[in-house]
Structures are given as structure tokens and as C-alpha cells.
Specification:
Blueprint lengths: L2 H12 L5 H17 L11 H13 L11 E5 L7 H7 L4 E6 L2 H14 L4 E5 L2 H4 L9 E7 L4 H8 L3 E11 L3 H14 L2 E9 L8 E8 L13 H4 L4
Parallel strand pairs: 1-2, 1-4, 2-3, 4-5
Antiparallel strand pairs: 5-7, 6-7
Helix pairs in contact: 1-2, 1-3, 2-5, 3-4, 7-8
């Protein structure tokens, strides 16, 4: 089977029904990803089923039909565009900002956005610690997503300053998610967050202990956070 057929089949198994237009957009994205990956390190996964399941469907597991439509979302450390671009393709009404510290990756993402004809989606060249201090980004987003960026105690300091009060930080985590939650509890609280849920997710054909961690912004983040670039990783809040 080709990428489109695999994605359609695996998507159905995971509860996602894609339109033909969406399948075409995902397929073009896949082709551009694999081609660009030859000269720019975007992903270790390039086989059709791996990208369909471990990148696209995994990204879409963050989607919540009650939370997402019409909202603003920033995808922190977006890398090759996951989960931001799949979420935008699946839910066109969300306004998306793809944020990354590497300009070359953002150049690739800008070409994907243009080629797919996506609207209300932009790229921002920022380290998360700097964006969290910037008045155009601090506490401006309904939703903040991050996938495979850092452990939760560190990631919370990157992401929580960007979330509006009443909004949500959604982290896509691996098998050690419970350890990360335990270690990051104090950080989440300090930064104005409250853990709402940690939901284990199963991807079609896989059983590798992934989880979706959802944190609500219940109070403003104190102005001293995020700390300067590099410090959250060296000295996590605990």
C-alpha cells in the first residue's frame, strides 16, 4: 500500500476519517518531508507506515473536538511540523503558529504551508524561553502543544508562559510519562498550571506506552518565568 492508503486505513482504526483533500494534503506533506530529509535532518522515520502512524496519527491524538475548533494554537519546538501541521490539516478552523529555534526547519515548513495552501498558519523563529518573555506571545494562546521536546519539568517552563489563563498545555509524551508528571508537579503548579489528565494512548499496531498530558492554565505565570535560555534545562523547577 502507498502512504495515502496506509494513512486512510490506520486513521480509521484510530477513529479518524479523512476527506480525499486531507489525504492529498498529508500525502504531499509526506513526499516533501522525505525529499527534504535527504539534505536536512527532519526525522529518523521515513517509511510510509512509520510516518503515517508514529508522526501523523500520533500528532492527531492531541485533538479534542470540544477544545480545538476556532482556537489559537502554538506548537513549541515543532521540528518537522508535528503535531502542528497534522492538527491544522485535520481541523482547518484553528489558527496555528509553528515555533522553532532552527530557521532551516521553518523554511521547510513555510514551503509546506504554501504548497498545501493552508491559511491562518505561520512560522515563528524563537527559542521558547525568549517567546515566553515576548509581549506578542506571552499568555496569548488558547492551546500550546509540544511533542518530544523535553521532560515535563523543563517543558512546562517553555510552554506554560505562552498559555492564556483558562487555556491548555497539551504534551505528547512517551512511556515514562508518569515519572515525568511526578517530577514536574511542582513546576506545573509554580507556573500557574493544574494537571487535568494523563491519558494513555494506543496507536494502531503499537503498544509502546504513549500518553497525552493535559494541563490547564488556572493562574498567571509569575513574571520571572521563563528564565533565560538554557537555564530551565540545567536547573528544572522542583
Amino acid at each position: 500500500m502507498n502512504f495515502k492508503e496506509i494513512l486512510a486505513q490506520k486513521g480509521k482504526e484510530a477513529g479518524f476519517n479523512f476527506s480525499e483533500e486531507q489525504l492529498d494534503q498529508f500525502n504531499t506533506y509526506y513526499e516533501m518531508l522525505v525529499e527534504t530529509n535527504k539534505t536536512l535532518n527532519l526525522t529518523a522515520l521515513t517509511e510510509p507506515e512509520d510516518v503515517a502512524v508514529k508522526h501523523v496519527i500520533d500528532s492527531l491524538m492531541a485533538y479534542d473536538e470540544k477544545l480545538f475548533p476556532g482556537k489559537t494554537l502554538v506548537d513549541v519546538g515543532t521540528g518537522a511540523g508535528f503535531p502542528g501541521i497534522p492538527l491544522k490539516i485535520y481541523c482547518p478552523t484553528i489558527k496555528v503558529v509553528l515555533m522553532d529555534s532552527l530557521a532551516k526547519r521553518l523554511k521547510f515548513l513555510e514551503s509546506v504551508i504554501e504548497t498545501l495552501g493552508l491559511k491562518d498558519i505561520t512560522c515563528q523563529h524563537f527559542r521558547a524561553e525568549d517567546a515566553g518573555k515576548n509581549k506578542n506571545h506571552r499568555e496569548k494562546y488558547d492551546l500550546v502543544t509540544a511533542r518530544a521536546v523535553a521532560r515535563l519539568s523543563v517543558l512546562s517552563e517553555y510552554c506554560m508562559p505562552l498559555v492564556k489563563q483558562g487555556g491548555y498545555f497539551i504534551a505528547l509524551k512517551g512511556s515514562k510519562y508518569q515519572e515525568e508528571i511526578d517530577a514536574g508537579k511542582k513546576a506545573v503548579q509554580i507556573l500557574g498550571g493544574k494537571l487535568i489528565s494523563a491519558q494513555e494512548i494506543k496507536l494502531p499496531g503499537l503498544d509502546d506506552g504513549r500518553a497525552l498530558v493535559k494541563i490547564k492554565k488556572v493562574a498567571p505565570t509569575p513574571s520571572k518565568y521563563p528564565r533565560k535560555a538554557g537555564l530551565p534545562d540545567k536547573e528544572p523547577l522542583s
